[in-house]
Write a structure and sequence with these properties.
This protein is mainly α. 61% of the residues lie in helices and 0% in strands. The longest helix is centred in the C-terminal third of the chain and has 30 residues.
């Protein structure tokens, strides 16, 4: 899933929160149903680590660490996308799930 995300984003991907020149709203491929599939991949990874590691502290530390990153970043990222793409992003939000596909 992580690889599919990078492939779909192409040059739009950035480690920092910024909009690049000629930035496009990607809504195809893995982005057809989920707005943040990269975070989906990380959530699944963190949950798997918590369940698989025999040390509960180490297992849940990854889950807690990623939760801090996720909740500190995703709202800012969506605000940036709304400022950049406006109604197109609002329509995209209405038809997709944030991290997991919406059940219609």
């Amino acid at each position: 899933m992580f690889h599919l995300t990078h492939r779909a984003l192409g040059r739009n991907w950035s480690i920092s929160l910024d909009v690049r020149e000629n930035h496009k709203l990607v809504t195809e491929g893995i982005y057809r149903r989920v707005r943040h599939p990269m975070y989906s991949a990380f959530w699944l990874w963190a949950i798997a680590q918590a369940l698989l590691l025999p040390n509960w502290i180490a297992g849940f530390a990854g889950l807690a660490g990623f939760a801090v990153l996720y909740f500190g970043r995703v709202a800012r990222e969506e605000r940036m996308m709304l400022e950049t793409f406006g109604d197109r992003y609002r329509a995209y939000m209405a038809r997709t799930g944030r991290v997991f596909p919406s059940v219609l």
